[in-house]
Amino acid sequence: MNGIFLAILGASLATALAGIGSAKGVGSAAQTAMGVLSEDASMFGKMLVLTLLPGTQGLYGFIVGFLILVNSGVLNGAASNVTLIQGLAYVGASLAIGLGGLFSGIAQGKAAVSGIAMSAKDDKNFSKAMVSITLVEIYALLSFIVSLLVVIQVPNLG
Amino acid sequence: MKSVRIIALRKDRKRLLEHLQDSGLVEIRESDYSGKGLTKVDMTSQMQVFERNVALTEHALKILEEAVPEKSGMLSSFSGRREVNPDEIGVIASKSGDVIISCDRIVELDKERSDNAAEQVKIRSKLALLETWKNLDIPLNTTGTKSTAVFIGTLPEEYGEQSLKEKIAAENPALECELEIIHSEPNMTNAVVFVPISQRVMAEDTLRSLGYSRPMSPTSKVPKVKTEQLLEKSKRLEEESEQAENEIKSFAPIREDIKMTQDYFKIRTDKYSVINKLSHTRHVFVVEGYIPESDCEKLEQICTRAVDCCVEFSDAGDDAPVKLKNNKFAEPVEGILMMYSPPGKTDIDPTPLLAFFFYFFFGMMFSDAGYGILMIIATALIIKIFKPDKSMRNTLKLFQYCGISTTLWGLLFGSIFGDAPAAFCNAFTGSSLTMAEILPWPTIDLQKDALMMMIVSIAFGLVHILVGMGCKFYICIRQKDYAGAFFDTGLWMLMLIGFAVLAVGMAFSPALVTVGGLIAIACAVGLVLTQGRNNKGIVGKAVGGLASLYDITGYISDLLSYSRLLALGLTTAVMGQVFNMLSTMMGTNVLGILFMIIIFVVGHAISIGLNALGSYVHTMRLQYVEMFSKFYEGGGKEFQPFSLNSKYIKIQEDK
After folding, report:
1. What residues pair up with B39 in beta bridges, in sequence order?
2. Three-class SS of residue B73?
3. Which of A126, B344, B436, B623 has its CA 20 to 30 A from that of A109?
4. Domains in chain A: ranges and CATH
């Protein structure tokens, strides 16, 4: 049996789940940021940075998804060579960044909401807020690394 | 840090304080000689005048900014304050009166504008009300003539002339009335009702039972005339507002003067607030403060040259503020240290160590020669073009040094804008080169050698932590706390080294396993024997000693935390590669090359933004959480000298 469907499923899971996490995170942060901006439009630059911080999970998911598509040969038409084992490995790998990105994105979004409220009160809090929000990032990053290391190795599997 | 006391004549106070403020060498502290015949002078009321002026100029600048936004480029926040010749201060001072008058005028005009706007709202609601009465050709407050009573008002339902007459007749058949409908809409009818004067009271009762009410704002004018008057007034207000707006705009050219005046008053406020801290007798006053040891001589010269005075130095106490003094290499990270906390009284200044590890770890995480070179060039250009102030300059320098380290690590990992050279070479020639084949020096591929780099990262972490513990060891020795040095810190350091030897031994030689294991066991025994030494009784000591071994989990999690060095480095490399892959996807025709350039620029911009931020924050975290927790107490006060503390201008030093 051919593993192409599973490879594509893996790419979709990685991109979509992590994307949902980022979308939820950025969405809630953006809502709060707009509230702040309606009072003081000059904060736009800072608000933009804080709002975008939960956006990285989606990017990590996309990178894993893209690498799966490249490695499995979907993009250059060599996909028929993907074995079942390889396909399953892609799905397994995609779950790390998919789930890690989903939940860390939401959690980082919550942190970003508080960070936005904090720097709206006093401009000086901005860098502290940014640092605190970025601390959540490491868990998405670790998920990403696990997915990545597996995806890179999959072509060597049977 | 030294403590300094200056005693001078009261008549020279202004002169001396000015010299102190200009030189910016001393942090003045509250001096307390109460009960010894010295008194304080209260300058609060003078300060209030200056503070009011500062607030006024701030307000005026804000209004001006709204009316005529100041042109500023994206990079202008880098530029330093304008340099001003000391002689110009006199000019600013002499102009300050006029500037304050202008500011008052600006604020007044702004108030006029907002008052007008409020008035306009009132007029608009009046006009909306009058609109329903526009067909009435007698004044709204008409109550009647000699023989006829007139009721002008509103009923809460929609009526035609006929239906209203019927309604009144049904309510009170005895009433003789004549009426006119002025305006009607669902749920509202404006009507005029005429009745004989003799039936006035009866008519009023009847109408009231129908819900009649008089107009909200009766006037003695015919509605049409009133409407015209109001429109005219609205137009006049609009013109006035426009005039006010234009007048505000006409103040735009003195914006710079306002800024300088603001700084002038800020500086004066500072000076007067310092007077509050001094002690005075009738003829003499005392200044007390802190000064860095290296500046003592300079201060003495400045003071004695300016006025007749007596300058004494003594040792500063424990609560003296801290001024960091570092070489060019370490100075840029002082800001990072201060963000955590200035060193406390028992601390050593960790800035040089912090600097080395900061540059080292940042470079390892950001690890791309292309990005590193961009950082070096960008920071160098900004420093050269905008001539930023010291703190901004230090931040830029920090990133410049980080850029150098990033470049070196990038070359080692074979990363130049991801794998750009290889990717583009392959795209155009159809070859399949890798970066390792292109670069003439040996490189480490993070993706293939991930496990090895993970171990290397943790090894760097071990060094980092051991250096931190080494600092603790040194501090303990300096305080003559030998038990703390050898038992609490030394044993753990040895134990970590033992484990490291053990780990190396497991990979290479069994002999090292024995050595490492023996070291670790010996240290563990040592810890059990010594860690409970402050507890009471044999049992307490034993339990305390055994419990201390549990700290090993803390060290393990600290060490594993350094795997982020690999994680962030790998992310930078892969992200760059993926963007290169995307950019070469459309082929090498004209359209493809255009696409390539756009994706390359945008993609790497995203990658730089994300990874630089990540590297910065996680480098900081490794310093604060993993290293500082081993030895750094913090909690000191930063040295804040009495100086010319201004926002817009910078006074050049006398040369």
Report:
1. B280
2. coil
3. B623
4. 4-156 (1.20.120.610)
